[in-house]
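Example record

One chain of 255 residues, shown exactly as stored in the release files.
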Amino acid sequence: MDPSGKTILLTGATGGLGRAIAEILAEQGATLVLSSRKGDELEQLAASLPGSDHRTIVADLDVPGSVEPLLAETGELDVLVANAGLGGGRAVEQNDAAAISTVARVNYEVPMLLAAGVLDQMRECGSGSLVFISSLAAKAIPLGAALYASSKAGLRAFSLGLAGDLQGTGVTATAVCPGFIRDAGMFHDGGGKAPPGIGTATPEQVGAAVLEAIETGKREIEVAPLAQRVFVNGAYHLHGPFKRLERAVGRPLDE
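Predicted structure tokens for this chain:
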């Protein structure tokens, strides 16, 4: 799908990755509906983008029942980019039930509800693109990141399953899986350091991957240097040995 002239809902728009995604899609001529909890930042972002018809919607996706009014205000759309997400922190270790529920909701449940809310309209049109921002943590499951990684693994599985279910309908689903991203995102914001030798990617590369997902409908796109992708996919198939290697390095991969 060519994004030019298409209406795209982008959640988590005011984060570092959200801004990079918004910029590249606006440059391609898309009309964006930008959503996050931060009204002032949304307005500033919309004003800074190419094009004049972008809209903003303040929505707190932490809150149950927030998806339906967001979609109602958005109206018909051609593309959904489910980018909003939360880190897991130490919610499991601290037995923080509220935090566990919130992370599972924002990272996993909300994207599914968003997709469910737009599928009928997209099927009737015979076209549409659903893009879910998962993570390579869904495969590697870094030490200390069980909650975050599992929520992103669930999202990846949902996206891949949905892509199969939608085959032949004209609607596509793509899981975009960033690895370690410098300059923006939860890894960067938390002061994380990538293990030596596997490199990092940029927010702009994540934005380019979202554009590729919309244009091609690929089922999965990994955003990371080759060495990191090799390591992650090795960990995916040989989890135990790679956890021992990770511990031998001397720190969890998410620190």
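Notes: The two ends are 38 Å apart (CA to CA).
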